[in-house]
Description:
The complex is a heterodimer. Chain A is an all-alpha fold. Chain A has helices at 2-8, 10-19, 22-44, 70-79, 93-134, 136-142, 147-157, 160-179, 184-210, 219-239, 244-255, 259-265, 291-318, 327-345, 352-371, 375-388, 393-399, 406-428, 433-457, 464-485, 494-497, 504-507, 512-541, 544-550. Chain B folds into two domains: 2-222, P-loop containing nucleotide triphosphate hydrolases (Rossmann fold, 3-Layer(aba) Sandwich); 232-300, Alpha-Beta Plaits (2-Layer Sandwich). In chain B, the strands form three sheets. A six-stranded mixed beta sheet of chain B has the order 7-8-9-4-10-11, sandwiched between helices. In chain B, strands 1, 2, 3, 5 and 6 form a five-stranded antiparallel beta sheet that branches. The interface between A and B is large, with 37 and 40 residues.
Amino acid sequence: MIDRLQEWNPQLFRELKGKLKFLNVVIAVTSSLLLQLVVFLYQLQDIPGNTYTLSEPYCGPHQGHLHQGKLTHVQDQLDNISDPLCPAAQIDWQSWWQDHWGYTFLSLSVIFILTLLIGGTYLLISDLAKEEQRGTLNFIRLSPQSEASILTGKMLGVPILIYLFVLVAIPFHLWAGYAAKIEFSHIFSYYAIVVASCIFFYNTALLLSLVRTWFGGIKPFLGSSAIVLYMFVTIIMSANENSDEIYQSTAWFRLFSPWDITGYLFPKLFNDDYSLVQTWKFFSFPVGKNLSTLIGFYLLSYGLLTSGIWQAIKRCFRNPNATILSKGQSYLFVAGSQVMFLGLAMPMHSGEETHLVLFNNVIFFGLIIILSPHRQTVQDWARYRHEKTDKSLFQDLMWGEKSPALLAIFMNLVIVAIPIMVIWTRRLDIFNAKVLLTVFLSITMMMIYATITQLVLLMKTRKRTMWAIGILAVVMYLPAIILLLLGDSPAKNPTLWLFSSFPWVGIKYTAIPTIFVAFLVELSLLILLNIQLKRQVRILGESATKALLFGS
Amino acid sequence: MTKDLAIRTCGLTKQFDRQVAVNNVDLEIQMGEVYGLIGPNGAGKTTLIQMLAAALEPTTGEIYINGDRLLRGKSNPTLKRRLGYLPDDYPLYEDLTVWDYLDYFARLYRLREPRRTQRLHEVLELIQLGNKRHSQIATLSRGMKQRLSLARTIIHEPILLLLDEPVSGLDPIARMQFREIIKALQGAGMTVLISSHVLSDLAELCTSVGVMELGFLVESTSLQQLYQRLARQQILLSTLGNLEVLVDEIKNHPLVEEWEVIPGKNGLRVNFSGNQEDCADLLRSLVSSGIPLTDFYCTQEDLETIFLKLGHKQAS
């Protein structure tokens, strides 16, 4: 068996050999057993004792149950300080144990998610960063093993001690679920979701590790911090799902966090029998109607995005200097993300378009950074394009591997703009110049940001990625933040907002001629920036001989 | 023709920013050769080797290994099985034992049992680390680590070895051991491309050499032709008698190009353009002239002298 495993995946075997040392295994198993004991003992401290009063939840049949909440319980205790004691025979032990096994089960479920996702991603990123730093990753790259074999080995092997920690706790978890009378279909659905989310997050971690140009040594810290933040934000959102409106338009964002679905599978997690996941529709198809459609939808979403990330991983594994996505893949990604946003957000409530545009804004922030090629790539492209390709310039800018990404970003903006225009037109029942100008303004501003980023990425400095991210963040978001801090609401000073990355907020309060002038100003700026970019690319592409002879 | 070439490159170029590290290199290496790549630091040797090993993407140009085009961005599993690459910094997994390390790479290169264990023993014997096979890599000396890296490079029996500065930082004994291993590998039919600053090692190992400078391959020829073309034959002579008499005999000989007195020794250093038979004739004529010779030693200019003569400055 072990030998077959070794033949099947030498990378996994190497990881197991390096990690499964006796002491490590003992520590993982012991800490898992200790954790189970602590969780169990923590519940036992609530066990009804000699001072249990009549008014407490488990005194008398069918009084208990978790939905009453612990705070109420404490409050009751304070209010009824002179309450008579509950006779021992009256304590509903069955309910008490059922509820407290439920608590144990839920505690372990949350611990599993946090340990696997946060710990696993940290280990993976730091392992690959170490291999890259040491130079050993290149040897693995140069071996004839497929990237699937090597990276699967990494995903299965690097967090093996965390898997061991969780696996040792699974029997107790299952027992707690059984004792709490939780349906097995729900428990196994939970396991399926946890496995799918692990695969998704681990793939994301691998992708982050393989991009050579990003962040260097602080990658493991940044990667796991980002995941901690995401888990924290999404658990807060899941625990406070009181606004149906916000819920719909943020559904895609929370879809990849396991909290919503865990809350649905085990309603006691957030003390809420009603989970808004049940109301989910995907273009009017009620995915939240029952357990199987919902789990199927989750697994499908995880699967689709993971396979997209996998394509990017394959690119970056073979060539760490490649952009994460090719231009063609970016069109698919953006179109797919729009289907996901709209599918989950439809039918939209009033004002939800704003969320949609905001999300797209963030997507484009990432896309500009991901797609824009760096100095060396642009230089190679400009210098040797005529030798290497017979494609037209348009085709090269649209699909080429090394060409500047401005046309590709424009195409992506068009892909995003079309559904937004359709929605606005349908909602407002108009298709007027303002809608059109809003779209034009937004696209022009985004193109300005993309051009600035490309110019920054042509700089000679080694830290150009950091510079590009910093400058892009500043030009995209700082003007709006300053305007907000100065108390300049869009209604008060709409013209200034037209020059921020959220021009649509000022449109309502601005006359068409003003918007048109703003558009012309922005367009002129875009043209000037592109002339500068073209000049720089031309200089970069000149041969050294020409530079020497003509001193350019 | 192409099929007989282990390596062929066409217009291979790598540019880093404004600097062209490798400039339009057309390299051809026959199968079974040991090809030495020499050149000053920064000449582009490491960049060239990295591109041949598929570890670095060329800016432009093509690479053929045994006639098959190397395509970067593709996994090239067949080509990779033919290649063995040893970089100059030879990183290792210090947490593994010698055996586990080699076993891991043997598996990565898809060696199956029983061949794998057999190959591991063969390689350990070749690099003389059989007695260290259960030692942690962290405990090995620098020379041992270097040999272990070479073992990793050849574990899958590649037909082309790319060695970048393999003997740098090694003591004379380790260097000699390394040379013996390379000779053994050549005997096994491997083609070896080796870059080194230690030209005496290359002179002993190589069948051909290439000289790189400022990214250009300025010379690529067999070692034999290089010696024929550029190495002068020298004869060292000493006499018990009068040096003047010896000088008179020497300067009248038609094949003597120039001569100089060796200070502190009653002898001469003569640059001689003839072959071995001509040397024998000269010796015979000197002896028959009654000159009491105590020394008559034919030698050839070494690779380092030739390299310097080519106008390059080589750190040795």
